[in-house]
């Protein structure tokens, strides 16, 4: 049974003559343990899809269902980190566990364990202002994974990082999600990122966003970042860009034509 299922999902904003259909209709299944990446032009509704999955927005029509018996089934990681400046790194990572009322000693131990796995153990007592952008995003990832979610929702989490750090964090995320078999829905503008991480890559149209194509990278699991040097990687990247090119042009036309 799919962990995530969208059926006839649409989302509109505004009313009357100013009404805008941002998304849909979308049909989507994400299986248990699957890592699904969604790519598409700016403004196509990728983030709207994820926010509906996270319960931050309601669909206008149709439904999106998270199929799990867990009390806290999903965790979300945002592009802008979403961590609290007034809390220490340890307190940020422990935040979800505190909400779940996990006993403090257990919560501290789990938070410190994830900080150690992400190379942040020595910064447990620091505040976010003292961290680089990459370190802040590691804190956000540690906080999400500390609650041991069945489903991980990620909205362009590495978009603001430089290319070298982005590559490093992609490889770390790949290792973490494979070891935990976490079901992941990942939004990105980067075709390279989608091919490194995804079991499936879904291509969305220009607004209103619909899924117009699906590709399965031919790289097995467990996978490492070494797939970037595989000739099939470049071939599939070029194929995805051909699928996406017209949608990007359509979005540009809608933005520039009055």
From TrEMBL:
Under the heading PROSITE patterns, the entry gives: ABC_TRANSPORTER_1, ABC_TRANSPORTER_2
Sorted UniProt keywords:
ATP-binding, Nucleotide-binding, Transport
The answer, when asked if Ribonucleoprotein is one of the entry's keywords, is no
Q: Where is the ABC transporter domain?
A: 4-231
Query: InterPro entries this protein is in?
Result: AAA+_ATPase (IPR003593), ABC_transporter-like_ATP-bd (IPR003439), ABC_transporter-like_CS (IPR017871), ABC_transporter_ATP-bind (IPR050166), P-loop_NTPase (IPR027417)
Molecular function terms from GO? ATP binding
Q: Cite a single Pfam family from the UniProt record.
A: ABC_tran
Sorted alphabetically, which CDD domains does this protein's record hold?
A: ABC_NrtD_SsuB_transporters (cd03293)
PANTHER family in the cross-refs:
ALIPHATIC SULFONATES IMPORT ATP-BINDING PROTEIN SSUB (PTHR42788:SF13), TAURINE IMPORT ATP-BINDING PROTEIN-RELATED (PTHR42788)
Q: Under what name is this protein listed? A: ABC transporter ATP-binding protein
Q: Look up and give the organism this protein is from.
A: Streptomyces albiaxialis
């Amino acid at each position: 049974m799919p962990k995530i299922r969208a059926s006839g999902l649409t989302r509109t904003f505004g009313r009357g003559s100013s009404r805008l259909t941002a998304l849909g209709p979308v049909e989507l299944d994400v299986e248990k343990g699957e890592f699904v990446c969604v790519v598409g032009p700016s403004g196509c509704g990728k983030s709207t899809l994820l926010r509906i999955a996270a319960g931050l927005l309601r669909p206008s029509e149709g439904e999106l269902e998270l199929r799990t018996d867990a009390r806290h089934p999903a965790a979300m990681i945002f592009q802008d980190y979403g961590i609290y400046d007034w809390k220490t790194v340890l307190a940020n990572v422990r935040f979800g566990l505190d909400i779940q009322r996990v006993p403090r000693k257990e919560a501290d131990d789990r938070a410190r364990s994830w900080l150690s796995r992400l190379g942040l153990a020595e910064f447990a007592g620091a505040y976010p202002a003292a961290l680089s952008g990459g370190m802040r995003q590691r804190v956000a990832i540690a906080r999400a994974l500390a609650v041991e979610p069945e489903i991980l929702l990620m909205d362009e989490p590495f978009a603001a990082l430089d290319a070298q750090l982005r590559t490093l964090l992609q490889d770390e995320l790949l290792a973490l999600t494979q070891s935990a078999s976490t079901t992941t829905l990942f939004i990105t503008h980067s075709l390279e990122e989608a091919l490194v991480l995804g079991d499936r890559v879904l291509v969305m149209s220009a607004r209103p966003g619909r899924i117009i194509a699906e590709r399965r990278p031919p790289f097995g699991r467990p996978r490492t970042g070494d797939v970037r040097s595989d000739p099939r990687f470049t071939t599939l990247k070029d194929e995805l860009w051909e699928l996406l090119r017209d949608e990007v042009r359509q979005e540009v036309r809608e933005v520039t034509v009055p």
